[in-house]
Amino acid sequence: MDYQAKIDTALNALHEEGRYRVFHNIRRMNQQFPKAIWTMPTGEKREITVWCGNDYLGMGQNPVVQKAMHDAIELAGAGSGGTRNISGNTSFHKALENSVADLHGKDAALVFTSAYNANEATLSVLPKLFPGLIIFSDALNHASMIEGIRHGFCEKHIFNHNDMAHLRSLLEAAPKDAPKLIAFESLYSMDGDFGLIAEICDLADEFNALTYIDEVHAVGLYGPRGGGVTERDGLAGRIDMINGTLGKAYGVMGGYVACSATLADAIRSYAPGFIFTTSLAPAIAAGATASVEYLKTHPELRETHQKRALNLKTQLKALGMPVADYGSHIVPIHVGDPVKCKLLSDMLLLDHGIYVQPINFPTVPRGTERLRFTPSPVHDDTMIRELVTALDGLWGQCALNRSKLTG
Known about the structure:
- By secondary structure, this protein is α/β, with parallel strands linked by helices.
- 43% of the residues lie in helices and 16% in strands.
- The chain contains 14 helices and 16 strands.
- The radius of gyration is 22 Å and the shape is globular.
């Protein structure tokens, strides 16, 4: 077996299809984000504007958050020292879990090193807690949810995205007395459309199913205190488990599941992904807590965020750009070709100092390749105008059609 040849073949296939991923070397500029420094392959350094970051509100440079992190380092040092059950269970972690539980109106929360880890660990352990569990999963659920369900080794059914008739038919076909769980998202990040939360909760009530929602791209951004779409729509109380992240709107790192106290206790006691993982560094937990608490009382950041997103979408649609608009803060422009998607990304960076990564398969289906822009309160009108002008010129240069999308 020529192992190197196999590796070369696999990598060459990505290059030939135009979806080889390049990880650019960028350094965010503290107190100047979305500005960053790009170190080019030649070693030259250039200032760029980041348009694809998930630090949606710029909280990664918030002085309150940074001070909390500095103070925690002074008090506790760098790392946590172990897993939660050995020596990594600190007052910083408990404070963060209390803050998150309060955010969602739940009895308890369990903090993980990432929202991916939280999804995978929780969804994979639920079949152990509920023998015979059947999971019903939206077709567009995140990879972390798919992996968690797969690793639970239970019966599962995929319902068409936001198709309540299909979900109902699957629920009706399942044994009436079998435990059931419906897993879905509040905001699907690739298109920016919302999950049908109320309708799913109604079906869950009718068929006695548990509900598990991923609010990763919505926590901090929607609702009076940033509790996500479930808080905005007054539905958090109808959801059994809420998954969220601390690495996007909150600008730090980590993930969590908020739920009942007994369920949180069971997950922490049975989930290998929680039991055997070193806990977050105290400084990260402290910074995340400060960010969650800050955004509970600063709705103006959410309001400015929505205005920036609307401004960008309005200008792009006025030029006939194929922008999907479902009323969220996500701004995806459909390209539909992996090579041209990468070419657009490269030219934006090299010629205009605008950084946005192409999104290709397997993140999205082939033929739906796109550039996804994430405006924030710290993207000003000048930055938006520069982006729109650059895209307007490059779109024709790449011989791409201008057509409006539904939604």
